[in-house]
Write a structure and sequence with these properties.
Elements lengths: L2 H8 L2 H8 L5 H16 L13 H20 L8 H17 L9 H17 L3 H28 L2 H4 L16 H17 L6 H18 L2 H23 L1 H18 L5 H9 L3 H4 L5 H21 L10 H7 L11 H33 L4 H6 L4 H13 L9 H18 L5
Length: 430
């Protein structure tokens, strides 16, 4: 056996993919660079254009086109994940808009289609090892850079960089539309960072995770903080299950529940909220406002369900909750801030069926990716997929706090999961 072959065999799969980058065809590299650019621009949502369009929609569109050209050139097998669930979801929106003869209500269907194509492009692209590595690195590094920029902006008092404006109080949003969206973006990035080894140096991943957690705190998003807790608990429990067996995992989970059961009744939540409200700005804007925020969301849910009961089974049309509440003289006029209520109100029962199918498809794929054996090259890049499962549960919960179905990072995550699932079931194309 030659010295060269011995060196090649001694490389890890990740090292091998780095070496292999030198021989990646130019047309594949072009897709990788455009895909990375799209990922880096995901949080750049201000300034925004008509119908809440922004720079990422342009780069995502280019990434979709480049991926389609790559698939056509290589004659690869094409997958369109989530098309059934989202297709029914979109059809329900179109029926509701047509039923109420409101043409503008059909406009939100265009972003739905773009997000479906965005997820599909990612799912098909990342089946090549170099593209998977580029995509994951772009996601992790862009989030770390964004978190660092936000922290610098807050410390230096540069509100434009931190994304702080009078409307959001002291809550930071970076370049995103609102702090809750920013919190969700960083939550997703944190779990991707924990699940993958796209950044190989452990100390860099650790510092990056700290920066992202600080950024989540600066957004003041209670939903993101709760989501991080859910993701860590689910991911950590499954990690223990896979590493130490079901008995150990169940024992630790039972101990945690017992401690929570003992400590829970002795915690004065109202006192903690009051102390947070009188404390430093980040605590004031997160825990300190949790009681008020919870009350407002209860009102929104109540108003939304009232609209659903008073209407018909077809829905009032996508994006028309606020407009409808205003026309009826409701006491609290806002969008639903709840994906499940908004779907029933705006897209009716058929929309609810589509949403259930979409969630089910994502759940099945996540389960396979978490518990089935990944190919060696995939496992080297995604050694801890259980944290992606945890993120899935966190996003499921996030749908109760605000409407995340139009979040670009959600569809990037769904595309990644679909791509990994395809690699579990069939070999990587070369």
């Amino acid at each position: 056996m030659s010295t060269l072959s011995v060196r090649q065999e001694s490389r890890t799969p990740v090292e091998a993919s780095f070496v292999g980058a030198a021989v990646v065809p130019r047309h594949v590299r072009r897709v990788g660079y455009v895909l990375a650019l799209a990922v880096w621009t995901v949080p750049l949502l201000t300034p925004s254009g008509p119908m809440n369009t922004a720079l990422p929609d342009v780069t995502i569109g280019v990434a979709v086109v480049m991926t389609v050209l790559l698939l056509r050139r290589t004659r690869a097998k094409v997958s369109l994940p989530y098309s059934v669930g989202l297709g029914i979801f979109m059809l329900a929106g179109a029926i509701a808009a047509f039923h109420h003869e409101v043409v503008s209500a059909a406009f939100p269907l265009m972003p739905d289609l773009l997000m479906l194509l965005w997820a599909a492009a990612i799912a098909n692209a990342v089946q090549r090892p170099w593209l998977l590595r580029v995509f994951l690195q772009a996601w992790c590094w862009s989030a770390i850079a964004g978190a660092a920029a936000m922290l610098i902006g807050v410390v230096a008092g540069v509100n434009a960089l931190a994304g702080i404006n009078p409307k959001n109080g002291g809550r930071a949003a970076l370049t995103m539309i609102d702090p809750n969206m920013a919190g969700n973006y960083f939550m997703c990035a944190l779990m991707v960072l924990l699940a993958t080894s796209a950044i190989q140096a452990g100390w860099i991943r650790f510092l990056g995770a700290i920066l992202i957690i600080l950024a989540i705190g600066l957004t003041g998003s209670n939903g993101a903080l709760v989501g991080v807790g859910i993701a860590l608990v689910v991911g950590g429990t499954v990690h223990m299950y896979k590493a130490r067996g079901p008995v150990f995992a169940m024992a630790v989970a039972a101990l945690g529940l017992a401690l929570a059961g003992v400590a829970g009744p002795n915690i004065d939540v109202a006192a903690i909220q009051q102390q947070a409200a009188d404390s430093i700005q980040p605590l004031h804007d997160s825990l300190g406002r949790s009681d008020t925020s919870g009350s407002e969301r209860k009102i929104l849910v109540s108003e939304g369900l009232r609209l659903f009961r008073a209407g018909d089974l077809l829905g009032i049309g996508p994006g028309r909750t606020k407009e409808t509440l205003a026309s009826e003289g409701a006491s609290y006029v806002k969008e639903a801030h709840d994906d499940y209520v908004a779907t029933l109100v705006e897209r009716g029962v058929l929309g609810g069926v589509g949403l259930i199918l979409l969630i089910s498809a994502a759940g099945v794929r996540l389960t396979r990716v978490t518990f089935r054996r990944l190919p060696a090259e995939v496992a080297a890049l995604v050694p801890r997929p259980e944290y992606l499962l945890g993120l899935g549960f966190a996003l499921l919960a996030a749908g109760f706090f605000y409407e995340i179905l139009h979040f670009r990072q959600l569809w990037a995550f769904l595309g990644l999961v679909a791509g990994l699932d395809l690699m579990v079931r069939r070999p990587w194309p070369r």
